[in-house]
Amino acid sequence: MSILLEEKQRAFADLRDIKANLAARGWFPATSGNLSIRVGGFEPSEFTFAITSSGRDKSVQTPEDFLLVNEKGVPTEATSLKPSAETLIHSEIYRLTGAGAIFHVHTIYNNLISELYGERGSIPVDGVELIKAFNIWDEEAQIEIPILPNYAEIPRIAALVEGAIVPRIPGIVLRKHGIYAWGANAFEAKRHLEAFEFLFEYVYRLHLLQK
Ligand SMILES: CSC[C@@H](O)[C@@H](O)C(=O)COP(=O)(O)O
Ligand SMILES: [Zn+2]
């Protein structure tokens, strides 16, 4: 599968913009978080994506921030850069959903809410307007956002993604870790990520108010 230089540069530029935007909100504490955008053609068994390199300070912009990997998470070009430690989770989400972009952040609210509903295995959200950001238009829609355990071995988490994905919900939460949100493109993935974070804060604060 050939990736045009132009497609790669566009993906890196888009990742750079979204990285700066999310960093400005403090959504990449302590080098956490990773971002990817799919480039070129897509077959569930063969695809390429641009992803953040591992362990870097995502609040600064450098020429070493991104690299291309294939569906197995292996770099497709000679590079000394290491792809994100969580690349396999991105691969699995692309394979299963055909998404065009995936954004992962650690925030206080996504961590708190994941622990509050960790045993239940999903976060219930009831009738909040921002559910429409997921293209769910039912009046007083009720959704459940799936939560997976946060194993140390990423392949163990990746193996659970297929069973956890809920078709109309473009995200998965890892318990006491963070959220993966995706969309058809970077614009949509960002909208979904913002909606999830809004809903997590809402549910958490409502829980406190009702106590
Ligand atoms: C430094 S804590 C965060 C990491 O363990 C991990 O969860 C994370 O999100 C970032 O890993 P990375 O390999 O930089 O993509
Ligand atoms: Zn993480």
TrEMBL record:
This protein's GO CC annotations: cytoplasm
Pathway(s) annotated for this protein in UniProt: Amino-acid biosynthesis; L-methionine biosynthesis via salvage pathway; L-methionine from S-methyl-5-thio-alpha-D-ribose 1-phosphate: step 2/6
EC number, UniProt record: 4.2.1.109
Keyword entries, A-Z: Amino-acid biosynthesis, Lyase, Metal-binding, Methionine biosynthesis, Zinc
Entry note: cofactor: Binds 1 zinc ion per subunit.
One annotated GO molecular function: methylthioribulose 1-phosphate dehydratase activity
Domain spans labelled Class II aldolase/adducin N-terminal: 13-204
Cofactor annotation: Zn(2+)
Annotated catalysed reactions: 5-(methylsulfanyl)-D-ribulose 1-phosphate = 5-methylsulfanyl-2,3-dioxopentyl phosphate + H2O
Positions with a binding annotation for Zn(2+): H104, H106
Stored InterPro entries: Aldolase_II/adducin_N, Aldolase_II/adducin_N_sf, MethylthioRu-1-P_deHdtase_MtnB
Gene3D superfamilies xref list: Class II aldolase/adducin N-terminal domain
The protein's role, per its UniProt record: Catalyzes the dehydration of methylthioribulose-1-phosphate (MTRu-1-P) into 2,3-diketo-5-methylthiopentyl-1-phosphate (DK-MTP-1-P).
NCBIfam families found in the cross-reference section: salvage_mtnB (TIGR03328)
HAMAP family found in the cross-reference section: Salvage_MtnB
Record's protein name: Methylthioribulose-1-phosphate dehydratase
